């Protein structure tokens, strides 16, 4: 006469009717007893009973029994295959998919809503993944289920990053190996638009909110790149948002790399040359105090610009580009066979005998 061991049926601390609804789905044709469904299993113990034909155990309030003829019963209904036990065990684990690096990604759309059920399933899943030799675990918890975060932290998960609608946690399973999970994004990306018209006037702004040390400074329109946004389109967008002026991207003139800029993150800042397509200024009053077309000579002579070695060099580079003594980088759309996706490769072409249109270094700006 067979019996089902506790190692075959994972038992959580408490049973809740909300979780039982999802637990019973694989057995929708099997009649369930409401009385049994509302029973409790306390701590690591299982309630068991026996008669002349069966030995029984309860998990999540369901009576699972081995019969004398090597079959199984769930709430008194005979099932002849041990497949039932595998199905039960699978229902006690979190839904997850394997990633390409020997780890797993938990399906955040199928997380149990009950914290007690989540805690038990998370512990059982970690044990299962450890036995299978899995490495990293990615656990995305939506803001609607934020009460699950402290449970995961208690089990050893660490914060990776957070967005508006979720927090991402990670867990590295192999204790004898250093974690190979990639860190959170280390950089923020900004752009500045150098827009020069035919009168050699540069488009400048005064920001509404700025440090006291730069109050009154006329500067280039700047801003951050949005998620999945190109550098060139981000520069055009920022100029449009702050000044109302339509522009066309020409080149990346230079970029600055700095560290510990905001919240210990590094910063990449791209200075872009743009051609104006309009000249009427309509400022964004929420963040811009004023904007105007300013003679380049007057712009450069501002004390703060003249005394700043980095910005002075940027202006020198822009002036060199206007006289064809320098050439910036232009985007070229290419598809890599590594991922099959189009991306922008920035480079310059001084002279292309096969296709002169590819050359960006001979272009006049004025």
UniProtKB/TrEMBL annotation:
Reactions accelerated catalytically: NADH + H2O = reduced beta-nicotinamide D-ribonucleotide + AMP + 2 H(+); NAD(+) + H2O = beta-nicotinamide D-ribonucleotide + AMP + 2 H(+); ADP-D-ribose + H2O = D-ribose 5-phosphate + AMP + 2 H(+)
Residue ranges of domain Nudix hydrolase in the record: 186-316
A matching Pfam family: Nudix_hydro
GO molecular function: hydrolase activity
EC number: 3.6.1.13, 3.6.1.22
Cofactor: Mg(2+)
Alphabetical UniProt keywords: Hydrolase, Magnesium, Metal-binding
Gene3D superfamilies in UniProt: 3.40.630.30, Nucleoside Triphosphate Pyrophosphohydrolase (3.90.79.10)
CDD domains, per database record: NUDIX_ASFGF2_Nudt6
Sequence similarity: Belongs to the Nudix hydrolase family.
Chain's role: Mediates the hydrolysis of some nucleoside diphosphate derivatives, possibly using both NADH and ADP-ribose as substrates.
Protein name, as recorded: Nudix hydrolase
Source organism per UniProt: Camelina sativa (False flax)
Organism lineage: Eukaryota, Viridiplantae, Streptophyta, Embryophyta, Tracheophyta
Gene assigned in the entry: LOC104772015
